[in-house]
């Protein structure tokens, strides 16, 4: 079935360690996104990518990095520079608007990161 | 800049009664508006969207939403609530930037449906 797969579902990290969250999609979507969810704050955009080998910062990119080497994959690295990394991370994708898409996002099941 | 406001942190409804979850937006130009639902420790599921045309939009699981341009609102409604509708609901507005669909989300409204 087509969809978005995020792994791991749960991740624990010690302070000072980098961690990478995986996101893979088989929807043939051009655009991919990473959001962070904190209680009472809704979703905030970290990074997004419109095409392979290109990505842009979102509203809260500091302390995070991404890559887009393949259309299907958009991994997120939470670096030690991120001051408050404990959160629920959501990956999403959408087809490009130049193909008539109305732009709704399709989400993965999320990854919960806890810093010990 | 675009923004979305969901003025209620929580809405409580008895099963069988109608429900409304409120959303107002601010965006330059014509908005694309969306509703998503989230169950605990899960991703967001798309419910419905308004792009153009009829102001009343019908979506999944019996939900609908009414677009009101003069009031800049996009309230989510359902004629008869179910206990299984209890979840976190997000309203979102779209800024079309190139081929990416950058959605701005509200802070969410928790819907609690009781017997």
Give a written overview of the molecule.
The complex is a heterodimer of chains A (116) and B (115). In chain A, strand 5 and strand 6 form a beta hairpin. Chain A is mostly beta strands and 116 residues long. The mean pLDDT of chain A is 91. In chain A, strands 2, 4, 5, 6, 9, 10 and 11 form a 7-stranded mixed beta sheet that branches. Chain A has strands spanning 4-7, 10-13, 19-25, 31-38, 42-49, 56-57, 64-66, 76-78, 87-94, 106-107, 111-115. Chain A is built from no helices and 11 strands. Chain B is mainly beta. Chain B contains no helices and 12 strands. Chain B has strands spanning 3-5, 10-14, 19-21, 24-26, 32-38, 44-50, 56-58, 64-68, 73-78, 87-97, 100-105, 109-114. Chain B starts with a strand and ends with a strand. Chains A and B meet through strand 4, strand 5, strand 9 and strand 10 of A and strand 5, strand 6, strand 10 and strand 11 of B.
Tell me roughly what share of residues is in helical segments of chain A.
under 10%
* Helical fraction of chain B: under 10%
Beta strand % of chain A: over 45%
Biggest contact: A-B, 35 and 25 residues
Largest sheet of chain B: 6 strands, mixed
* Rg for CA atoms of chain A: 14 Å
Mean pLDDT of chain A: 91
Question: Uncertain runs of chain B with pLDDT below 50, 5 residues or more?
Answer: none
């Amino acid at each position: 079935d087509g969809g978005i797969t995020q792994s791991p579902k749960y991740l624990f990290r010690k302070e000072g360690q980098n961690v990478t969250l995986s996101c893979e999609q088989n929807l043939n979507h051009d655009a991919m996104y990473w959001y962070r969810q904190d209680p009472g704050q809704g979703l905030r955009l970290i990074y997004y990518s419109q095409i392979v080998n290109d990505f842009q910062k979102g509203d809260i990119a500091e302390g995070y990095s991404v890559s887009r080497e393949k259309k299907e994959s958009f991994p997120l690295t939470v670096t030690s520079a991120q001051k408050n990394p404990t959160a629920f991370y959501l990956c999403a994708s959408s087809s490009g608007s130049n193909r008539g898409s109305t732009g709704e996002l399709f989400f993965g099941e999320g990854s919960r990161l806890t810093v010990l | 800049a675009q923004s979305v406001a969901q003025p209620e942190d929580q809405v409580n409804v008895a099963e069988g009664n109608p429900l409304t979850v409120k959303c107002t937006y601010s965006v330059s130009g014509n908005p694309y508006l969306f509703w998503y639902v989230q169950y605990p420790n899960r991703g967001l599921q798309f419910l419905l969207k308004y792009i153009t045309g009829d102001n009343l939009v019908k979506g999944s699981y019996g939900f609908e939403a009414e677009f009101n341009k003069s009031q800049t609102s996009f309230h989510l409604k359902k004629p008869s609530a179910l206990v299984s509708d209890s979840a976190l609901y997000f309203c979102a507005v779209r800024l079309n930037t190139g081929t990416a669909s950058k959605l701005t989300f509200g802070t969410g409204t928790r819907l609690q449906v009781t017997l």
